[in-house]
Design brief:
The protein is an alpha/beta fold and about 375 residues long. The chain contains 13 helices and 15 strands. It folds into three domains: about 130 residues, 3-Layer(aba) Sandwich (Rossmann fold), CATH 3.40.50; about 80 residues, Orthogonal Bundle (Arc Repressor Mutant, subunit A), CATH 1.10.10; about 130 residues, Trna Endonuclease, Chain: A, domain 1. The chain has a seven-stranded mixed beta sheet, sandwiched between helices. Strands 8-11-12-13-14-15 form a six-stranded mixed beta sheet, with helices on both faces. The longest helix has 23 residues. The protein is elongated and about 80 Å long. The protein starts with a strand and ends with a helix.
Length: about 375
C-alpha cells in the first residue's frame, strides 16, 4: 500500500521516519511531522532531508507530548484536516503520543504502520498486510544531517589500492616485531608534516634490524626514501599513510570485503564532521560506516598509549571519550570501536567496556574481519 501522506512523530531516532520516504515503493507525496516543543530542531533537520527528495513537509505543533487529553485533542484536530489517503508511522514520539495517535487513526480506519528499528522492515499494524523490507537507501550525508551533523569537506569513499593493502598486511602479519619501530616511525612522520623530511634518525634505530625492515616495506611501495639517516616522504598523502593512515585503510579494506556478504550500505574514512549549524570546530571520524541504517564509528590508533599526555603519545582515555562523544552523531543506536596497534592499559580496557565501546588490540587485529562481523551481528 502506497499512501499519499505519512504522519510521523518526531523523536531522537529519526531514521524510521526517513526510510519509508527513501524507498520508492512507499514514498509519499507529503509528510506531516507531529512536533513537540523539545523536538523542533530535530524536526527541522529531518524535514530538510525529506524535502530534498521532492516530498512536501508540513509541521504540526503538539502542545504537550505527555498529556493524554491535550494529545487527543491535538491529534484528532490534525487528523480532521488530512485527506483520506493518509497513514500513521507510529514508530517515533513519546509513548503517550504513539498510543493516542494509534487509537485515533485506528478508530478512523486509517492505516497504521511501524518501522522495525533493527531490521528496517515496514510492519502494517492496520490493516493487516505483508511487511515491506525497506531498501537501505540512507547514505552518510543524509544520515548525519537528520542527526544534526554535516560533513565538512570531501567524503573519502575510494577503494584501497592493492599495493597499499600489501603494506598493511605485511605490518599486521608481524605486529609483535614491528611494534616499537612503528612508534619511532610515527614520530618521524609526525615531525615531517610541513617539510616532508624527518629529523635525523636516532642511532639506536639506524642499526635496528626491525626498524630497517619496516622502512623497507614502505620504501618498496614508493611512500618514502631513507637517505643519509633522514626519512623523506613522497608527498603529504604518503606521510599520512605512514603516520598511521595505513591502519585506517586496512580497516576500510576489510569493510569493503564484508560488504559483499553483510548489509553495509555506505563506508568512508578520514571524514570531517561538524554540527549542522556551526562548523568552526570539526571532528575527524577515522572510519565510519552504515549498516541497517545504524552508524558505526572506528577509531584507529598506532601511537603508544600512556597514562600521561605528551606530544608523541596519546592517552587511551582521550580516544575513548572522543568515540563516546562522536556517537552522538548517530543517535542512541550508534556504536563505536577502538582498533589499536599498541597495548591498551588495563584501566582503559575497563573504561571502554563500561562505555560500551568494543576494542581490538595488538595481535587481535589479525582477526579484525571476524571481530567486525560479530559486532554487526551482535
Amino acid at each position: 500500500m502506497r499512501l499519499r501522506t505519512h504522519v510521523c512523530m518526531v523523536s531522537g531516532q529519526p531514521t524510521p521516519n526517513l526510510t519509508p520516504v527513501l524507498d520508492e515503493r512507499t514514498r509519499p507525496e507529503q509528510v506531516v511531522l507531529l512536533v513537540s516543543k523539545d523536538m523542533r530542531q530535530r524536526a527541522d533537520w529531518l524535514g530538510e532531508v525529506i524535502k530534498s527528495y521532492g516530498v512536501r513537509v508540513v509541521k504540526k505543533e503538539i502542545r504537550d507530548a505527555w498529556d493524554i487529553e491535550m494529545l487527543t485533542d491535538d491529534i484528532l484536530q490534525i487528523l480532521s484536516e488530512l485527506d483520506e489517503d493518509t497513514g500513521l508511522n507510529v514508530t517515533g514520539g513519546t509513548k503517550p503520543m504513539a498510543i493516542v495517535a494509534h487509537e485515533a487513526f485506528r478508530s478512523s480506519e486509517k492505516p497504521v504502520f511501524y518501522v522495525h528499528p533493527n531490521l528496517d522492515r515496514l510492519l502494517w499494524l492496520y490493516p493487516q498486510q505483508e511487511p515491506v523490507d525497506l531498501q537501505n537507501r540512507v547514505g552518510l550525508e543524509n544520515f548525519l544531517r537528520v542527526h544534526g551533523a554535516r560533513i565538512s569537506g570531501k567524503v573519502n569513499r575510494d577503494s584501497v589500492p592493492s599495493n597499499w593493502k600489501k603494506v598493511s598486511n605485511s605490518i599486521i602479519n608481524e605486529i609483535e616485531r614491528f611494534g616499537n619501530p612503528l612508534g619511532a616511525l610515527n614520530w618521524l612522520a609526525a615531525k615531517s608534516e610541513v617539510s616532508l623530511s624527518s629529523p635525523p634518525v636516532q642511532d639506536k634505530w639506524k642499526n635496528n634490524r626491525n626498524f630497517r625492515d619496516l622502512l623497507e616495506i614502505f620504501e618498496e611501495k614508493g611512500f618514502l626514501q631513507y637517505v643519509d639517516g633522514v626519512v623523506r616522504f613522497k608527498d603529504e598523502a604518503s606521510r599520512f599513510f605512514v603516520n598511521g593512515g595505513w591502519l585506517e585503510y586496512h580497516v576500510k579494506e576489510i569493510l569493503e570485503r564484508l560488504r559483499s556478504r553483510l548489509p553495509i550500505q555506505d563506508i568512508a574514512h578520514s571524514l570531517d564532521v561538524c554540527h549542522i549549524d556551526l562548523c568552526d570546530v570539526t571532528n575527524e571520524l577515522d572510519v565510519v560506516f552504515l549498516s541497517e541504517n545504524r552508524l558505526y564509528i572506528i577509531e584507529c590508533k598506532t601511537k603508544r598509549f600512556t597514562s600521561k599526555k605528551n606530544d608523541d603519545d596519546q592517552k587511551a582515555a582521550d580516544a575513548l571519550y572522543k568515540l563516546d562523544v562522536l556517537r552522538d552523531y548517530g543517535g542512541l543506536k550508534a556504536s563505536g570501536m577502538l582498533v589499536s596497534f599498541k597495548k591498551l592499559p588495563e584501566p582503559d580496557k575497563e573504561r571502554a567496556e563500561a562505555m560500551g565501546i568494543r576494542t581490538v588490540i595488538g595481535g587481535a587485529i589479525r582477526r579484525l574481519e571476524q571481530e567486525i562481523e560479530k559486532w554487526l551481528k551482535g
